[in-house]
Amino acid sequence: MLCDSIAIKIENLAKDYKVYKKPEDKLKEMLFSNFFSLFKIGTKKYYEVYTALKSVSFEVKKGEIVGILGKNGCGKSTLLQIICGTLPSTEGNVVVSGKVAALLELGVGFNPEYTGIENIYFYASILGLTNKQIEKKINRIIEFADIGDFINQPVKTYSSGMYVRLAFSVIAHVDADILIIDEALAVGDAFFIQKCMRFIREFIKKGRTILFVSHDINSVINLCNKAVWIDNGIVKKIGDPKSISNDYLAELYNSSNTNEKSNEVNSKDYRSKLGIKSETTYDIRRKLLITSNLRNDLEIFSFNDESKSFGCKGAVITDVMLLTSDKENICWTIGGEQVILYIEGKSLINISKPIIGFCVKDKLGQHIFGDNTYLAYINKSVSLKENDLFSSEFAFNMPILPAGDYSISVAIADGDQSSHQQHHWIHDAIIFKSHSSSISSGLVGIPMQSIKLHASSMESSYE
Ligand SMILES: Nc1ncnc2c1ncn2[C@@H]1O[C@H](COP(=O)(O)OP(=O)(O)OP(=O)(O)O)[C@@H](O)[C@H]1O
């Protein structure tokens, strides 16, 4: 029995998998194990035991969103499957209060030969709805999934994003008390993810519960009340999402075993070919009229190669600079000016689909803006060979920023926007300080093309 406030209670949960060296060993075990035990002549073991979960215990309260964090293979999916009842545990208990709907592996719950509409009936009836109830909801499910005419096509023709749209839409409409989501949203596009996030917030407001696995630390910090860090099948830590996420990232960093000293890369010739003048630090203020005390002065501190970082380090970022549009390294700029963020590094292995990106955060850790190379190179991929130097340049107009401290984190990954392996992520690679600003509210000011004020009683307008 669960007390009223608890949605999920997990006690001493353990899961052992049998791992067979050869496929025929499984058959032999099935054939002979009964025989051996029948005649009590001792048994021969045809498998190794792999313990995926050990002594896992925690509770999820009603109305909570709990994020599960952990490295690949640590046991997250195993745990969710046991909670959903699709996988038996070896030991321990799971008690859930209320109706559970889950979005686990892509395609689970769907028949690939059925159309989208047929699968809505199929999946929603597995989740406990009668045909009448589904009929009442089907228009809302189709509208939420928003996959156009594909709804009448067999789901085997769907992209992974379409699968997720349909599956999420079904679980969102079956009146579940608990939603369990296993990293599936990672393949959705940004608009759909926003729609799901709005749904999730409303769902929680109604006192319902969500348990989800995510590799996206930001969504765990922003959405969850609690985080559970699973490591090698055990619960390593439970608690406040921000502190658990920080500890988890720090451990990822420590466990990345390449201690490549990033400064060893000799990039002088490489930079001069690109026209980068890194030796001189040029103060852009000289070119500007110093007339107003509302000017947004930004002081830029140089690359900190000792900043916290993580990643598997198949490639390392070795330098980050802000340049003028003439490619001169700057230590000062002004909100509204054009700058180039230059990120340089070395690849230690072959990387087929590199993505280099950055994000600018304020001192509260709020993501102000950022970008990456993925879309710009989607049709003309650049791959990296072992020992290649690489660089990327992001040219943009620096927004006008309220006074305060800011940081630029940079990263190189391999893959695409939704699914990638992080090679090197450097937190706070560059720090900069906004000294004075005309901005009194909002996160950024956008340089205006023009500002007009009209009044019908006046003949002309003032610009
Ligand atoms: N059916 C199975 N037979 C044997 N081992 C398995 C089986 N399913 C999972 N495992 C192993 O159990 C461990 C935990 O797997 P699980 O899928 O739960 O990890 P995960 O944390 O969800 O990983 P990921 O983040 O990569 O999805 C892994 O080492 C995996 O290889």
Automatic annotation (TrEMBL):
Superkingdom field: Bacteria
An annotated Gene Ontology molecular function: ATP binding
Residue intervals of the ABC transporter domain: 33-257
Gene3D superfamilies recorded: abc- transporter (atp binding component) like domain, P-loop containing nucleotide triphosphate hydrolases
InterPro entries the record matches: AAA+_ATPase, ABC_transporter-like_ATP-bd, ABC_transpr_TagH-like, Bact_Polysacc_Export_ATP-bd, P-loop_NTPase, Wzt_C
Family: Belongs to the ABC transporter superfamily.
PANTHER family assigned: TEICHOIC ACIDS EXPORT ATP-BINDING PROTEIN TAGH (PTHR46743:SF2)
Protein name in UniProt: ABC transporter ATP-binding protein
